[in-house]
Design brief:
mainly alpha; 9 helices; membrane; Membrane protein DedA with SNARE-associated domain
Length: 176
């Protein structure tokens, strides 16, 4: 997996105009039910964030692309849960790992709309919470408000974490 992260980061470094579309696609996949279980993209997003400070890639379009991609991924997951309800448990990979959806369901029942914001920051919950919110027919607009706000914060956190790592590593290397 590390090799794929390095390949993606190297592609973005060499083709900076593609930074925002790549981040949008990665954030979408990371937030989309099923896909995020197979291809965790957060490491690549942090790596791209590290390029922002050292390569001249503009933060704002990449941040916005990450937020839009993450919000779209959650919206599609919500819609899928809303549309297919309990039938999603019969679809692979949830049919093989039913505990993933159960954790998301428990989380949504306990926390309600704030679960959308909170769940965004916890790996397996990231994709199962919006799916569960759709299954339970969480009201659309409260879901979307929490979805979009959390997506923008999540995108900023990952990108700025990577940017901070690159600044910190650069400072440490210059000090040695």
């Amino acid at each position: 997996m590390e090799a794929h992260i390095q390949d993606i980061a190297e592609f973005v470094r060499q083709h900076q105009a593609w930074a925002a579309p790549v981040v949008l696609a990665l954030a979408f996949g990371e937030s989309l039910a099923f896909v995020s279980l197979l291809v965790p993209a957060w490491g690549a997003l942090v790596a791209i964030g590290a390029l922002i400070g050292v390569s001249g890639i503009s933060f704002w379009p990449v941040w916005l692309a990450g937020g839009v991609g993450a919000a779209l991924g959650d919206w599609v997951s919500y819609w899928f849960g809303y549309r297919y309800k309990d039938n999603v448990t019969r679809i692979w990979p949830l049919s093989k790992y039913p505990g993933l959806l159960l954790r998301g369901e428990d989380f949504v029942r306990k926390w309600g709309v704030p679960s959308i914001f909170i769940g965004r920051f916890f790996g397996p919950l990231r994709a199962s919470v919006p799916l569960a919110a759709g299954i339970f027919e969480m009201p659309f607009w409260p879901f979307q408000i929490a979805n979009v706000l959390s997506a923008l914060v999540w995108s900023a956190v990952l990108l700025l974490f990577g940017d901070g790592l690159s600044i910190g590593l650069g400072w440490m290397l210059r000090s040695v």
